[in-house]
Structure formats: C-alpha cells, structure tokens
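Input record, target 12 of the design panel.
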C-alpha cells in the first residue's frame, strides 16, 4: 500500500531537479561516498588501471516522503532501481565501468524524509598517465573522476566523500596489490569554466601509489650486475680470443633479451626508464671491454708501462723456465689491471645509481 501511494503520481524518468531563471533554488546535492576501493591491475603499456570501485549515492527526493504514523510506523522501505530516479553519475576518462550485479538485485533504500541510498559496486578501468622515467622505483598518481553530463553545476552537484570508517574497514595497505602500495587517498573537486559562462564540476578520488621494486631487483637488476662483473673479469683474465668473444656475445644477447622484456611491459613514450638506461650502460660497458681487450695488444704502450711489462716477463721466465707465453704475461700488465678496475668501478656505479 505504501509503495502504491508513493509511486502513484511519480515518474522515475523525471529528475528531481527544478530550474527557474528568476528564482534562486538550491541545487540538488548528491553525496558520492567511497565504500570500497581495490587496485586490480595496472597495465603500463596501455596506460590504464583497473579498480574494484564501490560507492554509495545519497540524495533527497521530496516527492517520496510520507508520515510513518499513517503507515503503521514504517520509517524505511526498499524500492527497485527501476522504480525511482537515480542521479546521473558518470565515471569519466574511463575505458569501462561495469556494475556486475544482475538488474533484479539492484535496490534503493528510502526513508520517510525522502532520503535515498543506492549502493553501486563496479569494476572500473580508468586511463592513467604512467610516468616511466624512474621505473621500477617509480610512484604514480591515478584518479577515478566522476561528473554529470546532463545537468549544469548550478542545479546539480556531486560531493566526493571518504568516510572515516573506510580507513578501518579498508586501510591503505590493503588497497594495493602485490606490485603496488597505496600511499595516500584523497578526494578532490575540479571546476572548469567555459567561454559561455557554464561551469562543469569534476569530482575525483586520487590515489598516490608506489611500486614495489623487489621483483625487478631480484630478477633483472642484480643478475645483470653480477653477470657484468664476471664477464668483465673473464675478458681480462681469459687468454683465448674466441672464449672472450663468445662470453661477450652471450652477455650481449642476455641484455638484449632483457630490453625486449622491458619493451613489452612499458608504454612507448618519449622518456627512457631508469632500468632501461641501466641495461644500456651495461651493454656499453661489455662492448667497450671487448673492444679494449681485442685492440689493446696492438696499441703501443707508454714507456713506463712497456718497461714494467718487460720486467714482469723476464721475472716470469726465470721463475718458470720460460714456459709462460705472451698471453699469460699479458694478464699482469698494469694497464690491463687499471682498465679492469676502472670498468668494474663503472659497473658498480651504474648499479648504485639505479638502486639508491
């Protein structure tokens, strides 16, 4: 009986908004309260982020009021979503925002004062500008923005609300995933004024997130550093030119493979990520080491180094009956040791610059 009376002259297609040019009428205020937020996935190549985004709409409709005393003390009832007008709320700058419930499960809570509550659980995919310069030690800010496309801001407004209880029910540490940690969450409102004087309001929930780099440190950065250390040592200590060449080509192939992996997981933008610079420097160090080792025997040495080499060669021949050849003697060249130390230091500096 109560439902029949409420909906008798009620049109759910007619919004609860009244506009008169000569009368100052308060605009309809819709509160959008965050109910639950969880990061599902950040797709860097596509520059989009998927969230489980659940929110609650609160608004008043004076057409749906009644006196509880006239209806057996009933103070609250529930109506189907199709029976009442629902405020226009559009998630903007989003690829999709889907309410995964079936239609018959969508209900609106209504009390006797005409206050309505509608809960909306969605899986929302928003576009997010990914800055990759500091990858994998980067931080990103992604926003879920909402607005109305149907009404002017003078007649209709959306208020973004983060209830205090959400910090208890869903703390920040639980909003991220294994790769990302949510550092802060805030609500914002942006007002855009056009040349014709109209104003558009865009509300947002802004998340500041920091990446957990442990995976990339353990799988890419540290192994690449260790391989470079061993490869540089092998180049300067190995006497066989073919083994030096084979070792270097193997390392170059592994670094090129790593670059291919990074190209698949990062967006194609105009800035090179830190880990990409790190791998490129490693590649340059290995290539430079090979060139130095191959060309050094054919480069005339300064008189000081040449005298040191001759002394070391004479001493080695006396101690071992002249059994050592020139390749073994070359291992003790001061210039070789100096270059070895220099290249290893460059490799270490490259590693420290990235991780610190």
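The sequence produced for target 12 reads:
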């Amino acid at each position: 009986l109560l439902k029949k009376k409420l909906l008798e002259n009620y049109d759910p297609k007619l919004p609860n908004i009244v506009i008169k040019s000569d009368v100052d009428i308060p605009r309809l205020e819709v509160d959008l309260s965050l109910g639950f937020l969880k990061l599902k996935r950040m797709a860097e190549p596509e520059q989009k982020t998927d969230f489980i985004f659940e929110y609650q709409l609160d608004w008043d409709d004076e057409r749906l009021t009644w006196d509880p005393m006239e209806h057996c003390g009933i103070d609250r009832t529930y109506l189907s979503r199709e029976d009442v007008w629902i405020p226009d709320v559009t998630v903007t700058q989003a690829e999709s925002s889907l309410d995964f419930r079936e239609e018959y499960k969508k209900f609106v809570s209504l009390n006797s004062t005409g206050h309505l509550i509608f809960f909306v659980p969605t899986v929302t995919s928003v576009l997010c500008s990914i800055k990759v310069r500091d990858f994998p030690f980067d931080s990103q800010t992604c926003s879920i923005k909402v607005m109305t496309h149907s009404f002017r801001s003078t007649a209709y407004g959306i208020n973004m609300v983060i209830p205090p209880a959400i910090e208890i029910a869903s703390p920040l540490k639980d909003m991220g995933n294994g790769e990302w940690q949510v550092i802060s969450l805030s609500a914002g409102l942006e007002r855009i004024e056009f040349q014709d004087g109209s104003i558009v309001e865009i509300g947002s929930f802004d998340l500041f997130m920091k990446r957990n780099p442990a995976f990339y440190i353990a799988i890419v950065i540290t192994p690449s550093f260790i391989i470079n250390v061993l490869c540089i040592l092998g180049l300067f200590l190995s006497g066989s030119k073919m083994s030096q060449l084979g070792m270097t080509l193997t390392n170059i192939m592994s670094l090129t493979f790593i670059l291919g992996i990074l190209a698949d997981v990062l967006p194609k933008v105009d800035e090179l990520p830190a880990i990409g610079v790190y791998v490129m420097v490693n590649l340059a160090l290995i290539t430079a080491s090979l060139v130095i080792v191959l060309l050094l025997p054919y480069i005339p040495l300064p008189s000081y180094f040449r005298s040191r080499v001759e002394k070391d060669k004479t001493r080695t021949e006396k101690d071992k009956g002249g059994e050592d050849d020139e390749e073994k003697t070359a291992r003790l060249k001061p210039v070789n040791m100096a270059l070895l130390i220099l290249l290893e230091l460059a490799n270490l500096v490259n590693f420290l610059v990235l991780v610190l």
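The longest strand covers residues 28-43.
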